[in-house]
Amino acid sequence: MNLHEYQGKEILSSFGVRIQRGIVAQNAHEAVAAAKQLTTETGTSWYVIKAQVHAGGRGKGGGVKLAKNLQEVESIAEQIIGMNLITPQTSAEGKKVHQVLVAEDVYYPGDSEPDEFYMSVLLNRTTGRNMIMYSTEGGMDIETVAEETPHLIFTEEIDPSVGILPFQARRVAFNLGLSGTAFKEMTKFVMALYTAYVKSDASLFEINPVLKTSDDKIMAVDAKVTLDDNALYRHKNYVDMRDIREENPIEVEAKEVGLNYVDLDGNVGCMVNGAGLAMATMDLIKQAGGEPANFLDVGGTADAKRVETAFRIILKDPNVKAILINIFGGIVRCDRVAQGVVDAYKNMGDAINIPIIVRLQGTNADIAKELIDNSGLDVQSAVQFQEAADKVQAVLA
């Protein structure tokens, strides 16, 4: 589950990570009130207005601006709220901005070149260990840094059974070229950041930039946080942070009915039971010359109602030109799935106007094939993987 910047900072602050303070606002009036409150609490007289969307590169799209007085706060908030923000991480249509974060200005007067660092915490799937990735080149796209100056990217791997050790935090501070008070502050920052990552059950913390102020404070100026959905039952207070306005509406609908669905850019819809088989089916479609339009795991209860729901969700994508149903009958019998396909097809009537290929293997697969073949519907059955691939290729030709 992706979070907005202000939500990520709330989590960081709760674990003792110093952050750039800010207040979220839904309109220009609230933005001005937030700015006044910040002045009272922090003494700041300049303010940073940040669009709150689930996408990076907001500054490049005009979603992050500096306001030097309350009039500018109001004007900039009016400009940003309601705009379609286009960044390198959004679609061509961009994302509509519903709220802004009014933050204190932490770049002190006279700091012509403040020290900015990049830092993230994530899982290294190759080693099975957590990893802190960091660089002296903060404020830039880390992908650009990795491509042009890879020697400026450092990593610190942490055994999750032991946790981060003080010497590792000190090594991070040393590699960033810090000394004195800033060195000690960075060490505390790294320890607190890793603790926040583990205890919030996050899958990603990305802080870009981490700022060293002229008086040697270390703070998170930005925060990109992704939480592990499977661990939300342990964090009831995080569940309400989900903003479905930022998510794909088809994926939201699928989740509400208990389907594992991920929207893709292809032309062949997939309906499969089991994540591994779903991945193999996507490979099959690619080899047949098509492009998978989705990942869809219907699970082990592929009855008529569930199959019909899956059909309706797949067909919401106008790019889908064919549907491949690939079911292994282990827990669920193939004939039950086949009957579900037939019933769903009949219930939906003219709503299904594209070719459907059904491959069923496992328990009662022969009965299932007979049900499909004798249904009188425009549904093609297949037994072997290659046979299904050939039929996909034929309908796309």
From TrEMBL:
Please tell me where ATP binds in this chain: K50, G57, R58, G59, V106, E116
A single GO molecular-function term is:
succinate-CoA ligase (ADP-forming) activity
Q: What NCBIfam families does the annotation carry?
A: PRK00696.1 (NF001913), sucCoAbeta (TIGR01016)
Matching entries from Pfam families are given as: ATP-grasp_2 (PF08442), Ligase_CoA (PF00549)
Function field: Succinyl-CoA synthetase functions in the citric acid cycle (TCA), coupling the hydrolysis of succinyl-CoA to the synthesis of either ATP or GTP and thus represents the only step of substrate-level phosphorylation in the TCA. The beta subunit provides nucleotide specificity of the enzyme and binds the substrate succinate, while the binding sites for coenzyme A and phosphate are found in the alpha subunit.
Gene name of the encoded protein: sucC
The superkingdom of the source organism is Bacteria
Spell out the protein name for this chain.
Answer: Succinate--CoA ligase [ADP-forming] subunit beta
- Originating organism: Aquimarina celericrescens
| Cofactor(s) it depends on | Mg(2+)
Report residues binding substrate: N273, G330, I331, V332
Q: In which pathway does it act?
A: Carbohydrate metabolism; tricarboxylic acid cycle; succinate from succinyl-CoA (ligase route): step 1/1
